Amino acid sequence: MCRLVKCALLVAGLVLTPFVQVQCLAVQDVTVPVDPGKFGMAQLTYHGPIPSGREAVLIILHILLKAKRQTDGSYLVRTVAYAERPALQEGQDFAPVPSKLDITLQHEGQNGIWQPLQLSNLGVLQHQGPFVHEANVPEALAAEEFRLRVLDWPIYYTVRLPDIANLNPSGPVLNDHGPFRNAIAIGDIHITNVTLAAQVLATHMAHHFALGFDLYLLYARGAELMKALEANMVTAAFFANGMLQFVSLDALQIPLYDDGSSYEEMIKHRHDRSSSAYDSIKLIAYNHAALALWGERFRLAVLDIDEMWSSQDAFTTVNSWFDRCFPGSDVIRASRVNIICDVCLQSDVSELHYFQQNWQAADPSKVLRSFRRVTGFNKDPKSVFDPAKIGQVWLHAPFVLSGSVSTDVLIANAATDLALECAFVVHLRDLFGKRTQDASIMSDKHHQLVHS
Q1: pLDDT at residue 256, rounded to an integer
Q2: Model pLDDT, residue 84
Q3: Are 73 and 142 in contact (CB under 8 A)?
Q4: Tell me, what DSSP letter sits at residue 256?
Q5: What b/e readout covers 312-322, taking b as 16+ CB neighbours within 10 angstroms?
Q6: What's the pLDDT at 102?
Q7: Between the CA of residue 168 and those of 28, 157, 253, 328, what are the distances in Å?
Q8: Residue 59: which H helix or E strand, with range?
Q9: How far is residue 34 CA from its own chain's centroid?
Q10: What is the DSSP track for 174-241?
């Protein structure tokens, strides 16, 4: 049987009580917590100290682990790690993390000494994490039992890579050939009216499915939103055919305090990347989604609920952006067009209220036809990418690995440049905010969310 052994460690005056999983006597007894999103990952939790000034601070580190077998018998292993902290000091809104996070797979050598196989960090855009690591395990070692270790903490899980790979609903083999499917991850919906939230999501999904996206991963909390999605006939149908997957933020053990002091404060200070722009909920959601689709021949786009991809008439699907516009690209990063509801300018009705009043289950995209007035452009991009070609995913774009091809699509300034633009992202600027009379409102027939 596998046993959990409780041990105590005294560090800098703090008594830490991590759990150590000892090596099992039989392979079939190895049990690893399975990720609640059911995407073929193990979810492992570690406890340990990191330096913080002159003290050692206790953190809780969650590691999502996925493995895929390659055609030569070797295994690719990829992890996503993110930290939480049992108690925050005043003024903190996210958990401290190690400045360098070492993750090691240890296997027992012929002489009985455990040998390390280091996982490589795949690149960091945000130093608070999450962190993405990867290792290639040779076929000669793949069938062995490994200890998964973090830093020098006296805690490990015993894992077998074939068992982890077999957790994948699509099968254990790495899928790196053939046509791509396309997915979108939404990292939480900040709409308190859950019925309205379901309507907005239904419209978002209907619009993107028409562009050739196949799957939505929605990250959110609470049962009330889930009930509203099941009650909405559009989203209920998407649930039924597997096109919408709900991932519980609570099940991923993302603490509420890591959301910052409030959503309003986060928006207020969004320009400050060192503080509130660190939106841990979205970052964990986006990196979870990238790991879920890694090895599955999917591309992934990460968006807010008030952001939508669009395209020029000649290039109407996401696959055509990659195949015809930017062949050979692994990542497309596109600028954003700010658009408001032109009908709403004639009344005092908020855009969200207008949306609710005019939403139709029979045609959930129809309401978007009223969002046509361009107010300007934003060069801060959003992206769609192959998860196998990137490391850490940040709020707007991923870390592009060496050897991968990334294309930046800027908003065309002249009609002659439109043929090169192909795709862009529309931001419904005032959907969740107070409507402003913007002097920069312009006529732009080329950058529309819905083409007539």
Answers
A1: 59
A2: 77
A3: yes
A4: G
A5: beebebbbbbb
A6: 92
A7: 18, 19, 21, 28
A8: strand 55-69
A9: 18
A10: -B-SSPPEEEEEEE----S-HHHHHHHHHHHHHHHHTTT--EEEEEE--HHHHHHHHHSHHHHHHHHT
Please count the other Cβ atoms lying within 10 Å of the Cβ belonging to residue 447.
22
Tokens 């709409």 sit at which residue? 191
The first and second tokens of residue 24, run together, are 């099992």
CA-based diameter of the chain, in Å? 80
354: left (phi over 0), alpha (psi -120 to 50) or beta: alpha
Q: Which of 176, 208, 205 is nearest to 321 (CA)?
A: 208
In this prediction the pTM is 0.86
Q: What is the DSSP string of 417-438?
A: GHHHH-EEEEEETTSSS-----
- 6 pLDDT tier (thresholds 50, 70, 90): very low
SS3 388: helix
Q: Are 63 and 81 in contact (CB under 8 A)?
A: yes
Dist CA 432 CA 351 (whole Å)? 8
Contacts of 425 (CB under 8 A, 6+ apart): 303, 307, 308, 309, 310, 334, 335, 336, 337, 381, 382
The DSSP H or E segment spanning 268 is helix 263-268
Q: What's the start-to-end Cα distance of the chain, in Å?
A: 65
List beta partners, residue 427.
Answer: 307, 338
